[in-house]
Amino acid sequence: MSIKQKSHQRQSLISSFKHAFEGIAVGVLNERNMKIHLCAMCLVILFGIEFKISIIEWCICVILCGMVIGAELVNCAVEAIVDMVMPDIHPNAKVAKDTAAGAVLVCAISALIVGGIIFVPKIFSILLK
Question: Where does substrate bind (predicted)?
Fold first, then answer.
């Protein structure tokens, strides 16, 4: 592989990361629910620090937070594409948007349940002391 090809690959990788971070920024700035998910993630981090959760519990929390944020970003992308391709109201556009939003809801509810399993016993142990 030539030096020019390696340079192009490096630049392409940097460009890919730049575009990905721009996509995250768009989601954070434009999506109300993304802000809610990020606030929830901050609470998870604060609770995790306060309750000194285990490494396994941290890993679970990180995976779930990533799953919810990732699902919200995909939902944002689906909505943008549907709005671009189908500016008029159409039943299939509604299905696409509603199912993408439903996927986020399923991820968020799953994360909430697992978060409850991790944190509720720790909260009760402090309250019952």
Answer: 10, 72
With vertex at residue 84, the alpha carbon angle to CA 79 and CA 90, rounded to the nearest 5 degrees, is 75
122 is in an annotated binding site: no
pTM: 0.86
Q: CA–CA separation, 77 vs 59, rounded Å?
A: 27
C-alpha distances in Å from residue 117, one per residue of 61, 79, 127 = 11, 32, 16
- C-alpha to C-alpha distance for 129 and 118, rounded to whole angstroms: 18
Q: Which residues contact 30 (CB under 8 A, 6 or more apart)?
A: 76
Q: Could you report the per-residue pLDDT of 29-67, keeping only the tens digit for each?
A: 999 999 999 999 999 999 999 999 999 999 999 999 999
Would you call 22 a catalytic residue per the annotation?
no
Residue with tokens 């020019």: 4
Residue at 124: amino acid letter: F
Q: What is the dihedral of CA 102, 106, 112, 118, to 10 degrees?
A: -170
